[in-house]
Fold:
Amino acid sequence: MDFKIEDIDFEKMSGLVPAIIQDQNTLKVLMQGFMNKASFEKTIKDNKVCFYSRSKERLWTKGEESGNFLNVKEILLDCDKDSLLIKVDPVGPVCHTGSDTCWDEENKSEGRFLHYLESVLESRKNAPPETSYTASLFAKGINKVAQKVGEEAVELVIEAKDDNEYLFLNESADLMYHYLVLLQYKGYTIADVEQILRERHK
Ligand SMILES: N=c1c2ncn([C@@H]3O[C@H](COP(=O)(O)OP(=O)(O)OP(=O)(O)O)[C@@H](O)[C@H]3O)c2ncn1[C@@H]1O[C@H](COP(=O)(O)O)[C@@H](O)[C@H]1O
Structure:
């Protein structure tokens, strides 16, 4: 965020500014709400989008009941300083109807589920449930986590030599899952790797 809260012109529209929510991966507009100063401050503090709900007449963190939070990745202030564009990683469907956007659109992106899975793995690391395989892997430490990536890679190599589509794709999924676990264990994200690939692409 390269502006200060004092830069936002809340007074232009009686203390509220529109906040347009955009998926950081697909760049699709997901929903639109309003923010006052307090909801903006809470958004920054929790790193989750918090609106001022005009119908509820209170601060409303999107996802507070459904769990479908909007994790904030970047906040931009427009040229008139009276409208916010907030890029997010949505935890689940955005609209209360269950749709991906409030305009009933499907958020088509192969990458999106991987980012969602990444957020699930992060939560397994931070709040490990007893029954989670992922949490049990984290608990075993780096040697086991890295070893699983190696094992799954070898299994994929073996399947690559045959023509069994089902086994090849399933081994691919196993490898990708364990690779995401390793990235998470090491404290890195898909975006960190993407950044390097983008630089190579230039
Ligand atoms: N995508 C996966 C996924 N892919 C593979 N696996 C597990 O990875 C393991 C690898 O298979 P192996 O045959 O090597 O397992 P294993 O012999 O029991 O493993 P080791 O004893 O060698 O450790 C299996 O137990 C699979 O169930 C996964 N476990 C979890 N997820 C996803 O991770 C998220 C969190 O899940 P939980 O950790 O279960 O809460 C959810 O979205 C899950 O769908």
